[in-house]
Amino acid sequence: IISEEVEEKNMSLQDVVNYVADIVSARAAKGMNFGTVLIPEGLIEFIPAVKRLIAELN
């Protein structure tokens, strides 16, 4: 997952969760029940709705 891609595609938190879940599910269907998901530090700040919330709170 790339933070800038999340922002560019205007992804919601639910979109990000679904994206990761779909990848895990697809790998499991292939018998690949292992792996690592790298979530960048600060990813949440690139989600547009969260970005707006942070701006309002500041």
Instruction: Note poorly predicted spans.
Output: none
Identify the overall geometry: elongated
Instruction: Give the overall average pLDDT.
Output: 94
The portion of residues assigned to helices is: 55-70%
Question: Tally the helices: what do you get?
Answer: 3
Based on DSSP secondary structure assignment, what is the total number of beta strands?
0
Radius of gyration: 14 Å
Account of the protein in words:
57% of the residues lie in helices and 0% in strands. With 58 residues, the protein is mostly helical. The chain has one domain (3-57). The mean pLDDT is 94.
Topology:
Elements: H1 3-8, H2 13-29, H3 48-57
Labels describing this entry:
mainly alpha, 3 helices, elongated, 58 residues
Give a quick rundown of the structure:
The chain contains three helices and no strands.
